[in-house]
Design a protein that fits this description.
By secondary structure, this protein is an alpha+beta fold. The protein folds into 2 domains: 127 residues, Gcn5-related N-acetyltransferase (GNAT) (Aminopeptidase); 156 residues, 3-Layer(aba) Sandwich (Aminopeptidase). Helix content is 27%, strand content 29%. It has 8 helices and 13 strands. Strands 1, 2, 3, 4, 5, 6, 7, 8, 9, 10, 11, 12 and 13 form a 13-stranded mixed beta sheet that branches. Strand 11, helix 7 and strand 12 form a beta-alpha-beta unit. Helix 5 runs antiparallel to helix 6. The longest helix is centred in the N-terminal third of the chain and has 15 residues. 40% of the residues are buried.
Length: 324
Amino acid sequence: MSIVYINLTKDKALELTNLWNKEIGGSFPLREELFYQNSFEDVNVLLEGSWIAVDEKNQNAAGFVISKVWKEDMECIKSKKDIGHIQVLLVASEYRNKGIGSELLKRSENSLREARVKTILLGQDPWHYFPGIPSEFELTEKWFKKRGYVKYGEEYDMYCNLAATKPLELPSFPDVKFRMLDKEEKEDFLAFLNRCFPGRWEYEAIHYFQRGGTGREFVVAEKKGQIIGFCRINDSRSPLIAQNVYWAPLFGNEELGGIGPLGIDGNERGHGYGLAIVQAGMYFLYKRGIKNLVIDWTGLVDFYGKLGCKVWKKYIKYKKELNN
């Protein structure tokens, strides 16, 4: 068997999607549209560190790796410039234990090192698929541990059946109103995020509006005419496939909605507004006819549990420090 390595290329997208679904699609069904969005259209992909292993005999893809670094010149992500990510590393089962995964990882790490990355995270990239290694992939965990990756935490996706959740009413506070964001409030909303939640959430909101977002994906808490909190909600009509609805095909013909991220101005916490804005998000999604809800990438299991949410998927976070 002779394997050659080529850089990630769009003409292999469908084949790589099929490889993914053959290996892990039962738990994480990948749509080609999502693959294009997260792994080809994202400018943060490090092509020098993204490779496809090809069997020379039949020209089939035997495996692939996709690496990322934060390339965009945006103030909200400057602190992430020395962090690199391996978005996905997957080898077809019939090609495993032949050194292909090790070679893909070596090529990824070498390119990330050359890009002056100090820390490699598994997942958690911009336009990510996973916040860590899915917990059912125990052999994958062991494989990365042997190669110097260290566990440093856990994250969860949570599920809620809105039809069985009570109450599904818009929360009521004497001085706070929960409503959908108006498209004319874009600049005020981004200024709020920049002030209260600079970083990834602001970054994702900027891209949301660049993709034609109108505000229908954001619930806001308003007090005395000012935005003091937000909660993002997603569905199939959103301008991009958001992380909490990635695995919507698992729900068949029933639409999946998503909640998160969310946050309350630090000066307004301690009054129950956080839980209330989640409840408001649930209310608006249910009004759209959505019964299935996922909250992705969270450690706040008890917090969301108060509204009937249960752990659905678990991820183990891993990283590796590079010695440049």
